[in-house]
Write a structure and sequence with these properties.
Number of helices: 2
Order of helices and strands: HEEEEHEEEE
Number of strands: 8
Helix content: under 10%
Radius of gyration: 15 Å
């Protein structure tokens, strides 16, 4: 345990990479991560956990897609929706929901997810060069 405060602005100022989350601190078995984003991420889900997004600056769109299994079970076509997050908005992507965050103009985002959660979740395709697939980097 540390008796030192961690400053969000200082951590965000310490790196420039996009889609490369830094671990700000830990709460029980969860990471509080900071990430700078710009452009689109990859479609993925986290089968075992929810994921909290809090926009600190800028805006973020989270595209959500109903899984093929859910569509088949309900007899509907797969659907896609978009949740728009502005500065200081928060949203939880439920476990197992396929999602693709994107921010054309860029944003700073705080994430909360269990320690060891891979940023790209269950994505099994190629990872673009602008994305770091990681369980979080030290701040």
């Amino acid at each position: 345990m540390t008796n030192s405060a961690v400053n969000i602005d200082a951590v965000l100022d310490s790196f420039q990479e996009r889609w490369s989350p830094r671990i700000l601190t830990r709460v029980n078995d969860y990471d509080v991560r900071l990430v700078k984003v710009e452009g689109a991420f990859v479609w993925h889900s986290h089968p075992d956990t929810d994921e909290l997004f809090v926009v600190l600056d800028g805006s973020l769109d989270i595209r959500l897609r109903q899984s093929g299994d859910e569509a088949a079970a309900t007899g509907t076509a797969a659907t896609e929706t978009v949740v728009h997050l502005a500065r200081h908005d928060a949203f939880v992507v439920p476990r197992g929901v396929e999602h693709c965050p994107e921010s054309p103009e860029g944003a700073a985002v705080m994430l909360l997810e269990p320690t060891g959660t891979l940023s790209t979740g269950d994505h099994d395709g190629d990872i673009p060069d602008h994305i770091t697939s990681t369980t979080g980097l030290p701040a």
